[in-house]
Amino acid sequence: MNILFLYISLSHLSQNGVFVDLIKEFDKQGHNVKVVTPSRNGDSVGLSKEAGIYVVRFKAGQLTNNKSNIQKGIAYIKLIYQFTRAVKKHFASEKFDLIIAHSLPPEIGIITNKLKRIYKAKLYLMLCEYVWQDSVSLDFFSEKSLICRYYKYLEKKMVHVADFIGSPSQGNIDFTLKYYPCAKNKNIRILHHTKAPLSIESAGIDFKAKYGIQDKFVAIYGGNMSIAQKIENVIKLAHECLDYKDICFLMLGRGQDVEWCKKAAEQKKLTNIVFVDFLPQEEYYKLLSVCDVGIISLNEKLATPNIPSKTLDFFNLALPVLASIDRTTDYGYYLDTAEAGLWSYAGDTDVFKKNLLRLYLSPDLRKKMGQNGLKFYKNNLMPIHGYNTIIKQVNS
Q1: Residue range 125-151: average pLDDT?
Q2: For 8-66, what is each residue's pLDDT tens digit?
Q3: pLDDT level of residue 204 (50, 70, 90 thresholds)
Q4: pLDDT mean over 114-125
Q5: Strand order in 32-38's β-sheet?
Q6: Vertex 390 angle, CA 384 and 394, to 5°
Q7: Gap between the Cα atoms of 128 and 169, Å rounded
Q8: How far apart are CA 286 and CA 294, in angstroms?
């Protein structure tokens, strides 16, 4: 099958990643794979081969770290033309049977509608992101606003254009059907996030000592720090755990709330928090492998189901999960099904702390939950599982 993958953000195919590893699995299974994605900082522009796969990276506007939402909105609107132009420029003579695209940006509906007509291809939509519902719940704009109506139109268009839909949990599916009943005709099914197994090679370095956390019980948060994650809840947990001198919170990542978190930790004199700037992927995995608990944090105001993809790394490295989540997501059910972690509702610091201490005080529980997560990963979350799900849907 000739397949075109479209993604808004994609690391080099030589690396690991949720989308990267799925692309490589399709190539491994013998399909003719092409990829189109905006370039990132340091990326070359144009057509090249990455891990033996043809990839087009095109220059786009500022899509992240924008100075204003207007600037960001304009950049995404321009993508409609830029994506289509990049595909036609480099793959005009290709014949695509299937287009696989992620639901960010929501403009992908307009983009893929044009490409479907050009190539007479089917669209498989990986639907796990919703824009206007969360934006309204987080007070970015009101539901009656013009911009909200615009995003409602885009989201509806995206679902209507799709021929097949895959989402990471039943909660996502139920949410989609609530707003867009037509999705039941799109052969919608659960498509778990997937990722290739991590191989951690010993570098002869004591990573806990390198970051000053030797002899500590380490709970790590790695990833974006913004309003959607509400890292304030992790800061509160750290404050409540100051009396436990060997518990350390390792905070690693970027985002608009990083500086606020650092100032809050300084003001509260939280000596049990260590902040680490962005790390190369390989070093992050090595650091993660020596930690004791992986933290998931979601803002209690979120209005859409969310299955954080960083869970794959925790499961992959047999790290038990400690989660603080909103009441919309079914991530708690996801963890319970895997028996791989403990969760509480965001804002309930008492239960958040109680769950942390359960893991802290019981090495056996940590080991059991870590191994359960690894087993769940091997049975459900490897790229071959994602590949098989998509192929079965497309061929059914």
Answers
A1: 94
A2: 999 999 999 999 999 999 999 999 999 999 998 767 899 999 999 999 999 987 666 65
A3: low
A4: 96
A5: 46-50, 53-58, 32-38, 2-6, 98-102, 122-126, 164-167, 189-190
A6: 145
A7: 9
A8: 14
- DSSP type of residue 63: -
Q: What are phi and psi of 55, to 5 degrees?
A: -130, 130
Say whether pLDDT at 202 is over 70: no
Let me know: does 162 contact 390? Beta carbons within 8 Å. no
Spatial separation of the C-alpha atoms in residues 289 and 226, rounded to whole Å: 25
pTM exceeds 0.90 for this model: yes
In the block, tokens 């028996």 appear at 339
In the chain, the domains with their CATH numbers are 2-195+381-395 (3.40.50.2000), 207-380 (3.40.50.2000)
Measured between alpha carbons, how far apart are the two ends of the chain, in Å?
15
Structure tokens at 329: 């997501």
Burial-class residue 224 by CB neighbours within 10 Å (0-12, 13-18, 19+).
Answer: middle
Q: Are 304 and 130 in contact (CB under 8 A)?
A: yes
Residue 38, preceding peptide bond in cis (omega within 30° of 0) = no
Could you give the CA distance from residue 117 to residue 47 in angstroms, rounded to a whole number? Answer: 23
The CA distances from residue 189 to 12, 122, 162, 304, in Å, are 28, 16, 13, 17
More confident residue, 256 or 265: 265
At residue 123, the 3 state secondary structure works out as: strand
Instruction: From 187, 185, 189, select the one nearest 167 (Cα to Cα).
Output: 189
Question: pLDDT tens digits, residue range 233-242?
Answer: 999 999 999 9
Using the predicted structure, report yes or no on whether residue 209 has a pLDDT greater than 90.
no
Dist. CA 26–CA 160, nearest whole Å: 25
Residue 361 to residues 215, 216, 246, 265, 288, Cα–Cα distance (Å): 15, 13, 12, 25, 20
